[in-house]
Specification:
This protein has five helices and no strands. With 135 residues, it is mostly helical.
């Protein structure tokens, strides 16, 4: 059975309810991030005019953010604005995910896990709205 962005987010919310340690918060952040990431990927793939930005020497996550930050000028104005806004939100949650995944010497706090969930929820809502506007 396929895992959806909503599944990742639901798991993050469920984990936060019982989280009490640094490793718990790291897992919450990671799941929230991947919920947001996969939601944005699905939306960006449906854009009728995809970004012309060419990203070299970057991973798939960074390349996605650059494409969102530089939407195709032929894309509907509302979708261009949304694309840029999603990129900004994703930059925040990506930074939290990088902290959670790559900085074991840094403490991860409950408020950071909560922030990741709030941003991911907002991203999923905005992506769902945008899907309805794309033919």
């Amino acid at each position: 059975m396929a895992v959806t962005p909503e599944d990742f987010l639901a798991q993050a919310v469920k984990q936060l309810a019982s989280a009490s340690t640094d490793p718990d918060y790291r897992t919450v952040i990671t799941n929230a991030y991947y919920g947001a990431y996969h939601s944005v990927v699905k939306l960006e793939e449906r854009f009728p005019h995809r970004s012309l930005a060419v990203v070299k020497n970057a991973g798939s996550h960074e390349a996605l953010l650059v494409r969102l930050e530089r939407p195709n000028p032929n894309l509907d104005y509302g979708l261009r604005v949304l694309s840029s806004e999603l990129a900004g939100q994703m930059r925040i949650v990506k930074a939290l995910r990088e902290l959670a995944s790559y900085e074991p010497d840094q403490d991860v706090r409950v408020d950071q896990a909560e922030q990741a969930i709030l941003i991911a929820k907002d991203i999923l809502v905005e992506c769902a709205r945008a899907h309805k506007k794309i033919p």
